[in-house]
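Before relying on records like the one below, remember that each one covers exactly one chain. Contacts with other chains, cofactors or solvent are not represented anywhere in the record.
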Amino acid sequence: MVRRVEILPDLQALVDRAYEEVILLLEDAIAKRGSATFVLAGGGTPKPLYEKLAQSALPWSKIHLFWGDERYVPEDHPDSNYRMAREALIDRITIPWENIHPMPTAGGDPAADAALHAAHISDFFQLLPGEPLQIPQLDVVLLGMGDDGHTASLFPGTEALQVCDALVTVGEKSGQPRLTFTYPLLNQARTVLFMVAGENKQTALQQVFSPDGSNETYPSRAVSAQENLIWLLDSAAGKGIPVQEKQ
């Protein structure tokens, strides 16, 4: 695996660089395998990226969209990651409905919906049920990071950090449930790309990149990838973080 860290001058440069990377990675996946899987992140930072991707010439009929996590709210709720991506990207492109794979949040039981979505992912990748857990390989996973070091809905000190026998589990923040991809699924991806912006992320990033940092306290530290782990930071977030590329 190659880990690469780039620090961009500002948020717009961060978005532009992420756009270049995502286009290249998705086109490469399509060229090699005929289709691509792209995992979307929530939050405000990736929204302008989605708006820019909506103007691209990507062959959306060959791209399947997933979400790394979702608040347990209806799809039309203002806090829904799906709703944000729909408004910024999906409603602006021509993509088959069957290529869109939102997390289910209407069942009234977060654990049951997590299991339902895990089964959907297994079916999509034509994996066999049973033990040991079969983990599919996603092409491009986009992630953000909170100022507490969380990513997806893997929050510090929560039970979701320990789940290694499922693809999807229930995370929680302040007692509110969320659905989230687990570490085994995230870390099996070909490429994971973090977009992180803002001065309020500096402290957590220092710990994420520290050799003595804690995965339990700063969950983004435990995210890996099979081929490329890319961190794109704006200058406010990346102050003091060394630009690097290493095996």
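The chain has one domain: 2-246.
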